[in-house]
Amino acid sequence: MGQPVVHFEVIGKAPEKLRSFYGGLFDWEFDTSGPVSDAVSEAGNYGFVDRYTTSDGTGIRGGVGGGNAYTQHAIFYVGVPNVEAALQAAERLGGKRVLGPDRNPGTDLVIGHFTDPEGNLMGVAGVA
Questions:
Q1: Which residues pair with 78 in a beta bridge?
Q2: Which pLDDT belongs to residue 68?
Q3: Average pLDDT over residues 110-124
Q4: Centroid of chain to Cα 77
Q5: What per-residue confidence (pLDDT) applies to 21?
Q6: Confidence class of residue 54 from pLDDT cuts 50, 70 and 90?
Q7: What's the alpha-carbon Rg for the chain, to the nearest Å?
Q8: 86-89 — which CB contacts under 8 Å span 24+ positions?
Q9: What's the CA gap between 60 and 6, in Å, rounded?
Q10: Which of 15, 45, 77, 109 is geometrically suited to a Cys-Cys bond with 104, CB 3.0 to 4.6 A?
């Protein structure tokens, strides 16, 4: 059985403007009170998007954040049982590790980033 996409992110230099843009475009609301790894975004500047669903119940959670020191990108995360094992597998298959494993402060969430053989940034997420 395949592993599901569980989260998306949009990271930029001006996260408040990005949240305003995506909020206006898609009617998303953001919660900036949750903790996030400083490898992903400035503290207090990451807005979690709740899971908006279609009539059949599909939809995933996401977030918009970043800050001046962060490279702009959009990424999605695939849920995996072991982040380190997934990063090692990506490397064996021709990808390159970029981040992680890194734990989200105060939670059991662990994330990792890698690039695929074409250079696309991808994420994996699991629990410790």
A1: 5, 124
A2: 95
A3: 96
A4: 6
A5: 94
A6: confident
A7: 15
A8: 86/112, 86/124, 86/126, 87/112, 87/114, 87/124
A9: 6
A10: 109
Task: Report d(CA 48, CA 90) in Å as an integer.
Answer: 27
5 vs 114: CA distance, rounded Å: 15
Beta bridge partners of 30: 49
- Using pLDDT thresholds of 50, 70 and 90, give the confidence band for residue 2: confident
Instruction: Provide the 8-state DSSP code for 61.
Output: E
Give yes or no for residue 94 having a pLDDT over 80: yes
Of 1, 2, 6, residue with least CA distance to 122:
6
Q: How many CB atoms are located within 10 Å of the residue 56 CB?
A: 6
Q: Locate 120 and state its tokens.
A: 């696309």
**pLDDT band at residue 13 under the 50/70/90 scheme:** very high
Question: Distance between CA 98 and CA 113 in Å, rounded?
Answer: 5
- Beta pairing class for 61-66 and 96-103: unpaired
pLDDT of residue 1: 74
